[in-house]
Amino acid sequence: MCGIVATVGHSPAIPVLLDGLRRLEYRGYDSAGLAVARDGGLTVYRRVGRVRELAAQVPEDLSGSVGIAHTRWATHGEVTEANAHPHLDGVGRIAVVHNGIIENMGALKARLQADGVVFRSETDSEVLAHLISRYFEGSDPAVPADDPVAAVRAALRVVRGTWGIAVLFADHPDLIVAARNGSPLVVGLGDGQSYLASDPHALVAYTRRVVFLDDGEVACIDANGVQTFHVDGGVVDNNVETLEDVWGDEGRGAYPHLMLKEIHEQPEALDRCLSGRVVPENGTAKLGGLDLEPRDLARLTRVGLLGCGTAYFACQVGAQLVEQLARVPAKAEIASEFRHRNPVVDPDALFLAVSQSGETADTLGAVREIQVKGGTVMGVVNVVGSSIARACGRGVYIHSGPEMAVASTKAFSNMVAAMAVFTLMLARQRTLSAHEGRQYVEELRAVPDLVRRYLADPGPIDTLVKWVTDARMVLFLGRGLSAPVAAEGALKLMEVAYVPCIAYPAGEMKHGPIALLERQSPVIVVAPRDELRDKTLSNLQECKARGARVALIHTEGDEIADLADLSIPVPATSPLFSPLLTVLPLQLLAYRTGLALGRDIDRPRNLAKSVTVE
Ligand code: F6R
Q: Model confidence over 210-263: pLDDT tens digits?
């Protein structure tokens, strides 16, 4: 979601701030801004649009070695310059950048306005600037005036919601105050220069020595390092860590877009996810990060899988794998719904929180709810050291490598692969013989090459692009493991190309969505060779009978190709691993349709890469 970067020390701030914003832009990109302490005041720049538009306005040689910056994904208030961060207090002496949401903004704003404060934006974040300013000026006798840390702490004690903030004071141009509650922040420790960012990715060019802030903490950062406090008082002992496995900025390489690059990285990414984890000799798998012995696996009563968006569809695949192969009851749930229904958490169940970014607020909320209720939850996460990975403590890294395009592709595949590995481990302990296990291991290990082979010759995707570019609506259908694949295909086409799509389990189509079909309506049916294929084909016929034209994603060599108006074959694998193949044409369809329609493929409108608000 929004990105924060800040620096304090003796070197020029502007290059660090702009470089950091560029690295964080994939998180949110509707406007950007920065503030630098210089000449006894604060110099502020804000622009609607991309970081490059902000950079074009800011003199590279602007003096000042202390500053804060922000790239925004709008929550409160439209995308305007006035709503871009930093936000200032009434006299322009305090600047705040904020990720998260202030839930009691309405009441606080009304109170401040009644006291004569004039608001310049529609954002919730501006409330923070005015509140901090009041305490800083000594409005509360219990809070020492002119004390930046005390003012921030006092302000945060009256707000409700989530925040990662960085605050710059014109009267203390040698420090930055930061605070975290539900929105990640990491402090970087350099030599005579310190840094702050919402994502370690923005810091690695400068330092690998970092302190992750925890919820409820306030940090005072200067050139020499960081001092951390609890928001309610008391000093925190900082745990300085060394960033080992943080991705650099790899760029697009030879590809025109990050999304296409990431689609093509899937064979290597899958290899990384599987290597060292499947044990061919015993037909099983080992996931050290889960720290589960066979005895623990034997005690498991059920498996719950939680995620949002693409991760949720991967969870749906995972749940079916676990039930089908390991015969353990398993359920996928949308993480953003989970904690609001006061769920019953079985202490003998294992929950998996599935997330590429590891920062999705709803998934993190679900993790906390499970923990509060005494359940066991582990992460299936891509970003090492992310909030979900840290909150869970134990888990599986999916090892996709950096996924920087907003639309998730290779992370979906690696989530599915990681859950397939987990399933093998569980199934071997319960249902599978060594011989059966070895067959599955062999098939799973063959998948990366099959993906490579398909991507080298993906079939008539461009014909399908022509069908969908002008369509009023595209219907995606699949059954069993192919139902979540169909849903993922629809999500991808909607978010990258802005084409309205509906995805349905194929058998449900006749219970309603069939009413939408007209002559030439495009329908995309996912039907690999599995035990449900023939049933899906009946639904395909129902579509054709209404004049719809049907594209069929099917297993290579399957005679059903002739039933469709357009056939897109994918290499054969075990039906259980078919989602790793059938999703590929759908990813390419979204990419190429976005391209044909002139969309901003890597930065689709209204979206952000990691969704750190509820
Ligand atoms: C779709 C997409 C989103 C994410 C969702 C969860 O392409 O990227 O639907 O899948 O926001 O994100 P993570 O996996 O980071 O928790």
A: 999 999 999 999 999 999 999 988 899 988 999 876 666 667 889 999 999 999
609 tagged catalytic: yes
List of domains in the chain = 2-242 (3.60.20.10), 253-455 (3.40.50.10490), 457-614 (3.40.50.10490)
Ligand 1 center–CA 607 separation, angstroms: 10
Q: Report angle CA 382, 85, 406 to the nearest 5 degrees.
A: 30
Give the sheet arrangement for strand 474-478, strand by strand.
Answer: 501-505, 474-478, 522-527, 549-555, 566-570
Determine which one of 109, 261, 410, 609 is catalytic: 609
In the 8-state DSSP scheme, what is residue 587?
H
Ligand 1 atom at shortest distance from the alpha carbon of 408: 7
- Looking from the CA of 38 toward its CB, the CA atoms found within 13 Å total 17
CA of 307, closest atom in ligand 1? 16
The C-alpha atoms of residue 327 and residue 281 are separated, in whole angstroms, by 23
Is 286 in the active site?
no
The CA distance from 389 to 375, in Å, is: 16
pTM for the structure as a whole: 0.87
Could you tell me if the CB of 356 is within 6 A of ligand 1? yes
The span from the CA of 370 to the CA of 333, in Å, is: 13
Q: Which two tokens stand for residue 56?
A: 């074009």
For residue 187, count other CB atoms closer than 10 A to its CB.
25
Spell out the alpha helix ranges (H) of 479-600. Answer: 482-497, 533-545, 579-596
Among residues 2, 273, 315, 501, the one annotated as catalytic is 2
Mutate to test the pocket of ligand 1, among 198, 199, 310 (most ligand atoms within 8 A of CB): 310
Pick from 408, 496, 605 the residue to mutate for probing ligand 1's pocket: most ligand atoms within 8 Å of its CB. 408
